[in-house]
Specification:
Layout lengths: L13 H15 L4 E6 L6 H14 L3 E6 L11 H12 L3 H4 L3 H8 L17 H18 L2 E6 L6 H13 L5 E7 L10 H8 L5 E5 L5 H12 L5 H11 L3 H10 L11 H10 L3 H13 L1 E2 L1 H8 L3 H13 L3 E3 L5 E3 L2 H10 L2 H17 L9 H14 L2 H17 L3 H14 L6 H5 L3 H14 L3 H13 L7 H17 L3 H14 L7 H16 L3 H16 L7 H17 L3 H18 L2 H17 L3 H14 L3 H18 L2 H14 L5 H18 L2 H14 L6 H17 L3 H18 L3 H24 L3 H23 L3 H18 L4 H13 L3 H17 L3 H18 L2 H13 L5 E2 L5 E2 L15 H11 L4 H8 L3 H15 L4 H11 L6
Helix pairs in contact: 1-2, 5-6, 10-11, 11-12, 12-16, 13-15, 13-16, 14-17, 17-18, 18-19, 19-20, 20-22, 22-23, 22-24, 23-24, 24-25, 25-26, 26-27, 26-28, 27-28, 28-29, 28-30, 29-30, 30-31, 30-32, 31-32, 32-33, 32-34, 33-34, 34-35, 34-36, 35-36, 36-37, 36-38, 37-38, 38-39, 38-40, 38-48, 39-40, 40-41, ...
Length: 991
């Protein structure tokens, strides 16, 4: 009976394949997604994705595929991604030629043959590698849909896991489907893949496909394909009982006994061993080498196996034809299934394993071109094999080289593991410094840096303290100062900012008499940036200028990144202090420097800071233009998200709300799980737009999420916006206590950590609006205690705005003018002239929304003063802006004012607005009946429905109906608002 070892067609997976094909079709239409195929070993994950790949190719899609490799602690950085991309380099794919030089440089360290790598001093951000990888996928997806397959994700290295998280957050409308397979049974409780899957599989972009075991009838169908005819019932029963429906187990058990009769192996391992034992001696030697190597190149296999060319080729053909060995991606040999490798490796004797691993390490080293460093992947493989061979001195030296190579490709988690191995071996070998090429303090510094950059900050702090303990600060002040700078970074990341400042000062003190040095310049630039972020602008300017002076005395351009950081801190801080021209010039220098270096990360920072600083200076249109320009120049996805948020903010200020909404929506499509300042800013952008438009429910949800996310933030640029929006939301909801709490908390947090007068005056002005509303309502309800409280709070707030305005620029002055108008309203002396001045100030800054609100308030003040004719023009102007912006709440308020004041807004040929003639004295402006005027007078006095009914001799229910009708006629939402309208318009006297 002829028996095939593997099925020729896919059996029992029609539904799962259809799901994946549908996802690929959606990806082709611009709806990218990630699909996770889960199933136990041998259940058919690889078979399923191979079928998908074939169909994808038939439909014109581009297929990239790579396997994760089981190697130590997952130190083979980017393994499946490099495997997937390598054919593009080998085939000189024209897509690579179309990439910008900076992107090719980032990829070169991962893909030898692509060109020269990026300069070492710029290689400090793993996101650059991610951006470069995504740029390749994006270019490919423009030509045809892309299917990226990553197999055995349970063995994925940390960098590959991080890239998947990045990809899930970054994709928007690329024609791309990512399919990753993994074994759930491999994921122990603390497996690093668990939190990633929990995070990504909940995403709307994610699809989970779980492969169950085959049913009995499906297994019978598989057997028919394997043996070429319908199987007998006894064979089906026997193999179904033994395999439990696992397709691979069925194939292996059938291969061990084709007729299904007689004694079967006691276990699957025994069945696999039978397969191996049928091979000839040379083929068995080849698979033994492969069991130690995992996946290996032909030349390495030839070196270790010790066979001549003909014997090796014959052995390989036998292994391949027996369906034990396959040619994997990048022309490496590997086992058809991991279980086969495990079965062979488990049979090796301890000494045999050590010899094979040592031979593999030596062979891999010999394939590295003379004098050239090994790639990160090859270096990690060499280190793994020396460790597995038990050669501790060689393992230490190889791990050191591999750790450095991992840092070169920003694989910091892998670097942390490798340097950790060096430190574990340090006291076990003779002369470890000679083997490592560095002393222990340097290794500790490298390990700490890797842990810090991979967000394991507590471990980084512990390691750098160990390094400092091993150093003599007096003998080597520069190295010691650099270590203190690293410690300060860790303390800052742990929100221990006072400690971080003290440590930074200690580092700089060590270099006070050391002359100009790159180390001191880097510390000064770092300090300037921190001061700028904290809005301590005067100190930031001093630190930035000191850093630039230090850099000016250094040769070469090796400190470009530090110079850019200092220029950014100087520019932002100078503009905040009123020196707009010099500040703008510094930021434009930072932009030009980043452009010359093709450094998109620094370019993003420079453009973002320049736009923000211009906005703070009141140059609204210019700020928006700069953000747009940055977005057009910067190709990176993460960087573009920051620029999109800037566009959203400045477009909102400029009155381009549709553009603001579209920019925020683009960030939404690219956003991953909530985290960090970007998410904080994104939530605030949405909330501000929603409050502006009048979608209060949505605004409340976004503000609630922002408040949780920003609970520990010390960045005034976000805290000020949050406090302002929370106060405004509370004021509109008639929740004065909540609005006051938002103002108090925001001011406390901003004033505690900064001198950011712009955000202080913004929040204080919002607080004055709250107190003016509270005081006005207290007067309407004849509540002197509430009025006194509101006035006391208003006095404290206006003192803040006046102090802030003394050193403020145009934006601060506009807020100060608005604050004075709100203060007058709080005092009961609503002044239309103050509101007009505020509107003029905002219009001069090209910010129509606050200007329209000020025009509305000016009209209210004029109506209250009896100047209906004068109120017509600001009312019409406010309404026109509100309708153009799409601010439904403001348009509603203006319309309500016009109705209450009996204004019929008209626009003449010269554009001037006017009002209709005065009605007769006895005409009621709202159509209230005499009875309703009586009810309104009692409502204004604070009477309940029951009290109204008692005084007017009507049922309580009838009184309720009257009150409801009055609210409709007055176009107000509550009894309190009705009382206020009645009081201000003289309607609280019964007719």
């Amino acid at each position: 009976m002829a028996v095939s070892v593997t099925s020729s067609r896919l059996v029992g997976r029609e539904r799962e394949l259809a799901e994946l094909e549908a996802a690929l079709s959606e990806a082709a239409d611009g709806r990218p997604s990630l699909a996770f195929v889960a199933g136990e070993s041998g259940v058919g994950k690889t078979r399923l994705v191979r079928e998908l790949q074939q169909r994808a190719v038939a439909c014109g899609a581009r297929v990239l595929s790579g396997d994760c490799i089981e190697l130590g602690e997952g130190q083979l950085a980017y393994a499946p991604l490099v495997t997937a991309m390598r054919p593009l380099v080998r085939d000189a794919d024209p897509v690579l030629d179309a990439l910008p030089p900076s992107v090719r440089a980032e990829l070169a360290a991962l893909l030898p043959g692509l060109g020269e790598g990026a300069p070492r001093d710029r290689r400090d951000d793993q996101a650059r590698v991610f951006e470069a990888l995504l740029a390749v996928l994006d270019r490919l997806a423009r030509e045809a849909p892309v299917l990226l397959v990553i197999e055995d994700l349970h063995w994925a290295d940390a960098s590959t896991r991080a890239f998947l998280r990045f990809l899930a957050a970054a994709v928007a409308d690329e024609a791309m489907l990512v399919v990753a397979t993994y074994r759930p049974d491999e994921l122990h409780r603390r497996h690093p893949l668990r939190p990633l899957l929990a995070e990504l599989e909940r995403s709307q972009r994610a699809l989970r496909v779980e492969l169950p075991l085959l049913a009995r009838d499906e297994l019978a169908e598989q057997l028919a394909d394997l043996i070429g005819r319908p199987p007998g019932e006894d064979l089906v029963d026997r193999l179904y009982a033994r395999s439990e429906g696992n397709p691979l187990y069925t194939e292996e058990l059938l291969a061990a006994g084709p007729d299904g009769r007689g004694s079967l192996p006691a276990s699957l391992a025994a069945a696999l061993a039978v397969r191996i034992e049928r091979l000839g001696p040379d083929a068995q030697e080849v698979v033994r080498v492969l069991s130690a190597a995992g996946a290996v190149e032909h030349e390495v296999l030839a070196d270790v196996a010790g066979l001549d060319a003909r014997a090796l080729n014959d052995a390989l053909r036998e292994s391949v034809s027996s369906h034990i060995v396959v040619t994997g991606a990048s022309d490496r040999y590997t086992f058809r299934h991991a279980l086969l490798r495990e079965a062979v490796h488990d049979e090796l004797l301890p000494g045999e394993r050590a010899q094979l691993h040592r031979a593999l390490a030596t062979a891999l080293e010999e394939t590295v071109p003379g004098g050239a460093p090994a790639t990160a992947q090859r270096a990690a493989r060499i280190a793994h094999h020396y460790l597995a061979a038990g050669d501790q001195p060689a393992a230490l030296a190889a791990a050191m080289r591999a750790g450095v190579a991992a840092m070169d490709v920003q694989a910091y988690e892998e670097g942390a593991e490798l340097f950790g191995r060096v430190l574990e071996l340090w006291n076990r070998v003779p002369d470890p410094e000679a083997l490592a090429g560095e002393d222990e303090a340097s290794v500790l510094e490298r390990a700490a840096s890797c842990h810090l950059r991979s967000d394991d900050v507590p471990r980084a702090e512990a390691l750098v303290r160990r390094a400092l303990a091993a150093m003599d600060g007096a003998a080597d002040p520069r190295r010691t100062a650099t270590l203190y700078g690293l410690l300060s970074r860790a303390q800052w990341a742990l929100m221990r900012q006072d400690e971080a400042g003290d440590t930074m000062r200690r580092a700089l003190d060590l270099l006070a008499d050391d002359g100009a040095s790159p180390e001191r310049a880097a510390l000064l630039a770092q300090r300037a940036k921190r001061l700028m972020v904290q809005s301590k602008y005067r100190a930031a300017v001093g630190a930035a200028q000191e850093a630039l002076n230090e850099l000016a005395g250094l040769p070469g351009d090796s400190c470009r990144s530090d110079e850019a950081a200092a220029l950014n801190a100087l520019g932002v801080s100078s503009i905040a202090l009123g020196d707009v021209d010099d500040g703008t010039a510094a930021l434009r220098r930072a932009v030009a420097m980043a452009q010359a270096e093709n450094d998109y990360q620094d370019l993003t920072v420079a453009y973002s800071n320049l736009a923000d600083a211009l906005s703070m200076a009141g140059r609204t249109a210019e700020a928006l233009a700069v953000a747009r320009q940055g977005y057009a120049e910067v190709p990176g996805v993460r960087a573009r998200a920051w620029l999109l948020l800037g566009i959203s903010q400045y477009a909102f200020d400029a009155g381009e709300w549709d553009e603001a909404e579209a920019a925020a929506a683009q960030v939404d499509r690219r956003s991953g799980p909530p985290s960090g300042s970007k998410e904080f800013d994104r939530l605030l952008r949405h909330a501000e737009l929603e409050l502006g438009r009048g979608d209060h429910d949505a605004a409340r949800e976004h503000l609630r999420a922002a408040a949780v996310l920003g609970a520990d933030s010390r960045e005034p640029q976000y805290l000020g916006v949050l406090g302002d929006l929370l106060a405004e939301s509370g004021r509109r909801d008639d929740d004065i206590p909540a609005a006051r709490a938002a103002v108090d908390e925001a001011l406390d947090r901003i004033e505690f950590c900064s001198e950011d007068i712009l955000r202080i005056i913004r929040v204080a002005t919002s607080g004055l609006a709250v107190e003016a509303t509270a005081a006005q309502r207290a007067r309407d309800l004849a509540d002197p205690a509430a009025q006194a409280e509101a006035l006391a709070r208003a006095e404290a707030l206006v003192a803040r705005t006046r102090a802030a305005a003394e050193d403020g620029q145009a934006v601060e002055q506009a807020y100060a003018t608005t604050a004075e108008a709100e203060y007058a309203r709080a005092l009961g002396h609503d002044d239309p002239a103050l509101w007009t001045a505020a509107a003029d100030a905002w219009e001069a800054l090209e910010r129509p929304y606050p200007a329209a609100q000020a025009r509305w308030h000016a009209a209210e003040a004029l109506v209250a003063a009896g100047d209906r004719e004068g109120a017509a023009a600001p009312t019409a102007a406010a309404l026109a802006v509100a309708e153009r912006l799409g601010s439904t709440w403001l348009a509603g308020e203006v319309d309500s004012l016009a109705a209450r004041a009996r204004l019929r807004l008209t626009v003449g040929t010269n554009g001037a607005a006017g009002a209709e003639d005065e009605p007769e004295e006895d005409e009621d402006p709202f159509g209230l009946t005499p009875r309703e005027r009586q009810v309104l007078a009692l409502v204004a006095a604070g009477a309940t429905n029951r009290e109204i009914g008692r005084q007017l001799y009507m049922a309580e229910k009838t009184a309720s109906v009257h009150v409801s009708r009055i609210l409709v006629k007055l176009d107000v939402r509550s009894r309190t608002e009705a009382a206020g309208v009645a009081h201000r318009l003289g309607l609280d006297v019964a007719a």
